[in-house]
């Protein structure tokens, strides 16, 4: 079976994963200003559904990252690691979905931290960073 992977990994990140994960990351927060503390969290069914729908996008994006042709690494061992990182992102997103199902802001906050950590772990290994002098 073949899949259309003409949307490359960078596009998948920019067009799907980043926007969806930002909704999940921003769903629960405490903002402290000179005027006081503001707690941000979903309140209405519509707000909870928006977070859940975006968490589903993150979960499914993990599956899309594992399609042949999308993995960034070149070795078989690195592909296994890439896939493990993608599965970890999906698992963390599953926890976020479960938190939205029971409308638990604390669990959603923890799950969003787990999603963020899986993203960071993958980016540390697989995102190319140009040298400081700009050579590639």
From TrEMBL:
Organism classification, top ranks? Bacteria, Pseudomonadati, Pseudomonadota, Gammaproteobacteria, Steroidobacterales
Q: Which PROSITE patterns does the record cross-reference, listed alphabetically?
A: CYTCII
- SUPFAM superfamilies on file: Cytochromes
GO process annotations (BP): electron transport chain
Which intervals of the chain form a coiled coil? none
Give the Pfam families listed for this entry. Answer: Cytochrom_C_2 (PF01322)
Its protein name is Cytochrome c
The Gene Ontology terms for molecular function here are: electron transfer activity; heme binding; iron ion binding
Q: Which organism is it from?
A: Steroidobacter agaridevorans
Q: Which Gene3D superfamilies match?
A: Cytochrome c/b562
Question: Could you name the domain of life of the organism this protein comes from?
Answer: Bacteria
Query: InterPro entries recorded for this chain?
Result: Cyt_c/b562, Cyt_c_II
């Amino acid at each position: 079976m073949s899949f259309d992977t003409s949307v490359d990994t960078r596009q998948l990140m920019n067009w799907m994963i980043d926007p969806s994960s930002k909704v999940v990351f921003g769903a629960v927060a405490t903002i402290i200003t000179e005027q006081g503390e503001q707690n941000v969290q979903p309140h209405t069914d519509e707000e909870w559904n928006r977070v859940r729908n975006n968490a589903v996008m993150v979960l499914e994006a993990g599956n899309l990252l594992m399609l042949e042709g999308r993995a960034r690494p070149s070795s078989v061992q690195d592909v296994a690691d890439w896939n493990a990182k993608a599965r970890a992102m999906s698992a963390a997103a599953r926890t976020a979905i479960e938190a939205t199902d029971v409308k638990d802001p604390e669990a959603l906050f923890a799950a969003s931290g787990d999603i963020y950590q899986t993203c960071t772990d993958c980016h540390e290994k697989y995102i190319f960073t140009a040298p400081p002098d700009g050579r590639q």
